[in-house]
TrEMBL record, chains A, B:
The active site is at E473 (proton donor). One of its GO terms (biological process) is carbohydrate metabolic process. It comes from Phenylobacterium glaciei. GO terms for molecular function: carbohydrate binding; glycosyltransferase activity; hydrolase activity, hydrolyzing O-glycosyl compounds. This is Glycoside hydrolase family 65 protein. SUPFAM superfamilies: Galactose mutarotase-like, Six-hairpin glycosidases.
Amino acid sequence: MDKILQATADAAWILGEEGHDPLRESSHESRFAISNGFLGVRGARAATGGCRWAIPARTYVAGLFDTSTADGAIPELVPGADWLRVRILLDGKPLVDDPGDLSSHRMTLDMRRGVLLTECLQMNTPAVGVRLRTLRLVSLSERSLGLQLIQLDVEHGEVAVSLEASFEGMNLGLVAERVGQDLGVWRTPHSRKGLAMAAAPSLQVDGDEVPATALGELRWSWTWRSRPGQVACFARSVAVTRSDAPDLDPAADARDKLGAAQRLGWRGVVADHEAAWASRWRCSDVEVEGDPVAQQALRFAAYHLNSAANPADERVSIGARALTGDDYRGHVFWDTEIFLLPFYALTWPEAARALLVYRFHTLDAARAKAARMGWRGALYAWESADTGDEATPEQVIGPDRRVVDVLSGRLEQHISADVAYAVWQYWQATGDETFLLDFGAEILLETARFWASRARVEADGRHHIRGVIGPDEYHEDIDDNAFTNLMARWNIARGLEVVTLMGERWAGRWTQLSSRLGLEDVELKQWRAVADTISTGIDSSTGLIEQFAGYFALEEIDLADYAGRSVPMDVVLGRARTRQSQVIKQADVVALLALLPDEFIGDTAAENFHYYEPRCGHGSSLSRAMHGLVAARLGEPALALRYFHETAAIDLAETHAAIAGGVHIAALGGLWQMAVLGFAGLSIGADGVAIDPKLPASWRSLAFSVQWHGRQLRLRIAQAEQSLEATLEAGEPMTLVVCGTSYALDRDGALHISLREPQNAAA
Amino acid sequence: MDKILQATADAAWILGEEGHDPLRESSHESRFAISNGFLGVRGARAATGGCRWAIPARTYVAGLFDTSTADGAIPELVPGADWLRVRILLDGKPLVDDPGDLSSHRMTLDMRRGVLLTECLQMNTPAVGVRLRTLRLVSLSERSLGLQLIQLDVEHGEVAVSLEASFEGMNLGLVAERVGQDLGVWRTPHSRKGLAMAAAPSLQVDGDEVPATALGELRWSWTWRSRPGQVACFARSVAVTRSDAPDLDPAADARDKLGAAQRLGWRGVVADHEAAWASRWRCSDVEVEGDPVAQQALRFAAYHLNSAANPADERVSIGARALTGDDYRGHVFWDTEIFLLPFYALTWPEAARALLVYRFHTLDAARAKAARMGWRGALYAWESADTGDEATPEQVIGPDRRVVDVLSGRLEQHISADVAYAVWQYWQATGDETFLLDFGAEILLETARFWASRARVEADGRHHIRGVIGPDEYHEDIDDNAFTNLMARWNIARGLEVVTLMGERWAGRWTQLSSRLGLEDVELKQWRAVADTISTGIDSSTGLIEQFAGYFALEEIDLADYAGRSVPMDVVLGRARTRQSQVIKQADVVALLALLPDEFIGDTAAENFHYYEPRCGHGSSLSRAMHGLVAARLGEPALALRYFHETAAIDLAETHAAIAGGVHIAALGGLWQMAVLGFAGLSIGADGVAIDPKLPASWRSLAFSVQWHGRQLRLRIAQAEQSLEATLEAGEPMTLVVCGTSYALDRDGALHISLREPQNAAA
C-alpha cells in the first residue's frame, strides 16, 4: 500500500495543507473535494474521534434532488451518508480526538491521480506512536465506486488497537428504506428517488486478514494488539447507485458494482482510476512556464472541471458549485453552458454532449414555462435541477443577511439563448451529426421560436423585448437588454441556419421534425422579421451599445472611490440606489463581446470594453473571466492577466474563506477560457481551428490540447521564440489558421510556425 | 393537558409564527429559544420525520466549555444532545415529513409563562386526521429540568400509530462515557467536564398508561391504534447536570433531580416553573402604553434577560448570544457588565451578584494576563469562558468572508474598568456588604492597580495609556483613548474610595485584604498621581473630547453619503481607509457620556454627543442603545425613540436573517436601559433612587419595577397627566428624588407626584 499512499513528486500537481486551521477548514473542504461527476466528497479530515460538531462530511450524489411540499420550496441536492467515518482507539483513547492532538497533519490533493491523501503522526501518548496515512478516491473509470485506504504504521508501543468503520449522517434528508450490515437503501422523502450504498471493508495486519466484528447498520470493528514495526492496512470499497423512479430498487446494481470491484481488488480499482485520470490529463492539461501561480490555478481548474462532469449520465448537469458544496443546492445555471462548455466541447466532447442532452431532456419543462408565461417555444429554467422546472428561489438571504426578492426565475431569460449558444459551439467543435439531428436542432429551433414570440413589434417598427434581467442583475425588469436582444437575434439566426442545413442535408429528418414542432414557413418568415428589426441598442455613430434602454441616463458613479470595499456594490450603495446607477454587477455588454466577437467590427469592441469595464463592480464570480477573455483578445495581456489572477484567487487565495459552500466551477472554466481562448487566441469555426496568440509577458510558454471534429491537437506557444508548435495527435489531416494564415496539419510530426514574421504557409 | 397547551390570551405576551419559512427558520430558532441560564434550547420545530439535514436542534449547557489542543484554539461552548426528538408514524407514514406537509403549523412563544408551544393539523392523508400540540420548557425553578409535552388528538381515522422518542446529536463534540436506556454520560474531550442527561418518558392514551418498548440508548417507542376522539398524551422529563472535574460523575445528581421531578409530576413541574416566571415578571415587567411595537420589544428583552441568568451558578456568566446560538461560542464580553448588568442589578440582584462573582473567580486569570503583559493588578480577558483565560480568537472570518486579525484580546483593555464599573453599580444598587467585602473590593482594587501600572508618566508630566483599542474597534493600537483613560481614572477613584470606606467601616477586613494584596500607602499615592494627571483628551476651551490622540486630524467622511449601505462602514471603505478616517464603529465617547454622566457639566455632554453621533456607523449591535440612552437623557426623546426602534429591529425585524447565531442579548439589555435609565431617567446613587422622565410623545405611559437596597418599587409615568405614581412594594421607607425634589416613600400606599409644576415635596 506504501507506494499508492505517496503523492506525485512534482509540486505543480499538488495542493497541500499542513496543520489545522479551523477558520479555513470549511473552505479547504471545498478545495480538496474529490468527484467523478456522479459522486462528490468534500475534503473533510480523514479520522475524527467522534468529536466534530459541525455537519458531517458531505457525499453528494448527482441528480439526487428532492423538493419539499412547502410553499415556494425548491429542489435541493440531498447528500448521502458519509461513508468514510473511521474511529481508531489506541489503548482505549481515540487516535484523532481532534486535529490539535496530532503532532503533524498533512492533507494532499494529488490532482494528477485524482486522489486525496492524508498523513499524520501521533506521538503524544508515551505508550504508543503511530503513523497514519489515508487515501480516498471516487473512481473516474467506474463512477459508482468509492475507495478508502488507511495504513497504520506502528512506530513503537504494544497496546490494544481497535478500528471502527461506520457510515454517518444516514438520516439527514433521506428516509431509510432498509439499512443492513453491508447495504443501505434510502429514499428522498418527496421525489422518491432511491439511493443504495453497499460497502465491503477489510483489514490486514502484517498481511494477515483480521476478521471484522459486524456491529450492524454499516458498522464494523476490528481489534488487535500493536507491536513496533507492525503495518495494518484497512480498505473500504463502496458502491453507490441512484434510481430515479419510486418503484426501482437501486440495491441490486450497487451489489453488482461492489462485487465487480471486489473481484478487481482495490489495487485494480486504483489502477483503473489512475488510468482514467491520465487519459483526461492527456486531453486537457494546460502547461504554463514562467508563472507558477497561473500554472497551479490552471491545473486546479482542469482538476475540478474533469471531476465535475459525467458523460454517462444525460439526466444531470453541473451545478454552480459542482459536487463540492451546498451553495445553490446543486442547481444548474447559464454557468454550465457559457463558462464550462467550451472546456468540455474542446477537451471532452462526450461530457459536453451529456450536458447538452440534459437540456434536451428538460426541453418539455422549458416549453411549459414559456407557455405558462404566454409565449411559444422553450424558455429554460434560470435555475434547473432534475426535471428542468424552474428552481429559482423566490427569496434568498443576501450577503448582508437581509432577505431579498429574486426575480431571475421569471425575468432572466437569456438562459434560452445561452443554451442554444452552447449547442452551436458543440456542433461547431465536433460536427456531431447524430447529436444535432436527435437533440441539438430541436433545442435551437424551440429557443429561436421562444425569442420570435417574446419580441414584440412596436410603433417604431422595431421588435423589442421588455421586462427582462440581463447578466447584470443589479438592473431588474429592464427593456431591450443588449445582451438578451443580440443573443436572441443570434439564436434566431442559428435556428434559421439549422432549418436550411437540415432541409439541404437531411430533408427527411427535417420533414419529421418540422411537422412534429408545427414549424411552417409563415412562422420562419416572422423569425426573420424579428431578427432583422430587433432593437440592438447600438449607437450607429459611436458604435457604443447601450446596455439597456435608459442605461446611459443613469447616475454615473466612480468605482475608484470604492476601491477599498470588500463587498459587492449593491450592498455598499443599497439596492435602490444601485438600480438607479450605471454600476454593473458583472460583464453584460462585455459578455456579448466575449461570446459574439464577430458582431463587432473595427474598434467597436475596444470602445465598448473601455466604456463598460470601469463601470463594472464584479459582483459575481463570473465577471472577471469575461473581462480577462476580452482584454486578452483585444491585445491587452497585462490587464487580462490581472483578471486571470483575480479569478484564480476566488478559490485559491488563503485570505478568503468564501468557498465554504463549494468551488466556483464557472470561474474555473473561465480560467481555462482566458488561457486558451484568450491568451492563445483559439477560435473554432465549422471549417477548422484558428489561433492568434498574445501571451502575457511573464508567460514563457503556453501549451494545451484541444479536440476538433474527432481530431486531437497539441499546441505550444513559446514567447521568446515567438513560435507555435502544433501536433496532430489523432485524426485526419486538417487546416490550422495561425494569425490569419492557413497551414495544413497532418500526422507526420509537429509543425513549427514562427509568429514573428509576416506569415507564409510553411508546410 | 389541554389547558397547559393553551397560550396566554393577551397578544402582548406572545410571539408567534404561522406556517414555515425556510429562509428565516434559523433566525426564528434563536428568537424562540427557551432558557433558564443553565440550559438553553433553540426553537427548532417540534416534530421532524428524520428528514432534517441541517444541524440538530441545539441544547446548550452553561459552562460546558472545551478547548481543543490545536494552535490558537479557543474555548467553545459544546452543545449537549437534542433531547426533544420525536417521530410519529400514522399508518407507517411519518406525521411530519417536513413542514410543508402540514395543513397548518403555528409556533408560539408564551413569554409570560416561559414556554414554547406548537400546534399543527395533519389532514392531508385521507385515512387519518390528527391535531398535534406540544409544549417545551426548561424549568426556571429547578434549572436542571427540561420538560416536553405532546398531545395528539385524533380527529378521524383508525390506523396504527407509533411514537418514537429519542436523543439526537449525541456524538457532536462530546465523547460518550456511557449511554444506557434512560441515562447518558458524556465528557468534553479536553477539559474533561462531565454532562449527564437522564430521561423519563411516558405515554397515556385516553388516560391509560401505554408501556414503552425500550430501544436502548435513550430511545423508546410506543404503538397503539387510533380512533376518532382519542387523546394521546406524551410527557418526557429530562434532568441535565454538569460536573467540572474529570473525577466527578454527574450521573447521580441527574438521577436525583429526575426522581424529584417524577415525584412532583409534570403538572407540578409546570406549576413551579410558571410560579418562578410570575415572580420574575413581577420584578421586571416594563409596560408601555401607546407603542405596541415598543411594548413587545421590551417584553421580548425582559423574556430573554430573565432566561439568560442563573443566580445559582457563580462559575458562569452570560455569553454574547446568551444560550440561544453558536455565535461567539458562549464567550463573555463587556456586554455583560455594561449592557446587561443594570437590568439585573435593579430587577434581580441575585443574578447580578452571580455574574460578578464569576468575575471574582476569574480574577487569578486576569492577574496572570496582566503579569504576562508586564503590568500589575488584573487585566480581564476581552473574551472570557470558563477559566477566565483570554479566549479571543486571533483571527476571525469577517462579514465579507475575509480572514482578519483580531487584536482585541491583547489591546481592548477597557474591559477591566467595565468590570469594576459593574461591581460599583451593583454595590450602589444593593448595598450588599458581604459581596463588597468578599468579592467586590478585591476586583475594584486589582483593576485600579492595573490601570495605575498601565499608565506611564511622560515628558509632559501627564500619564498616558498607549497602544489600546477603545469601544470603537475600527481604530486599533491607539494612544490615550478617552473612554479607556476616563474609565481608568474612574476605576482608580473607586479603588481609592473603597480603601477609605473599608478603612473606616471594616478596618479588620481592610488590614487582611491590603496585606494579602500587598497594597501599601506608597502605591496608593501613585494611584492618586495617575488619576490626577492622566490625559483625558478634553479640550478645555470647547469641552470637546478627542476620542484618541490624533483623531481630530483623521479624514472626515460624511456618512450620509452611505445611507443606502447595508453592511458596516469598514467593509464599505476597506479596513485600511476606515482606520485613517473619523468613522466610528460604535459609541465610544458617547458610551462615556452614558456611563459617566456626572463627569460632563453644562452643555458638554450635548456638544460631544452632537459631534460624535454623525460620525458613528453603528457597526456593532451595541452602538445604538448607547446613543438612544444619551439622547433620551439629553431631552431628545424623538431621536432616542428612533434608536430604540432600530435596536428592537436587530432581533425582531423580519427583513433580517441576521440572528441565526443567537439573539443579541446586549442590545436587549440596551432596550431596557433606554426605557428605564433613558426615558424614565432613573439613576441610582448610594443615597437613593432618582427619576427625571422625558417620555417620547407616542408613549402614553411607562411603568416598571426596580429594586434598591432590599426595597422593591413600582413606578408609573403618565404622559398626558404628567404624573408619576410610585409604590414601595417591599422594604423600608426611602427617599425618591423626582426631577430634583426629594420625596419620602413608604409602604402606606402609592405616591402621586405631578411632573407638570415646579416640584414641591408632596408627602
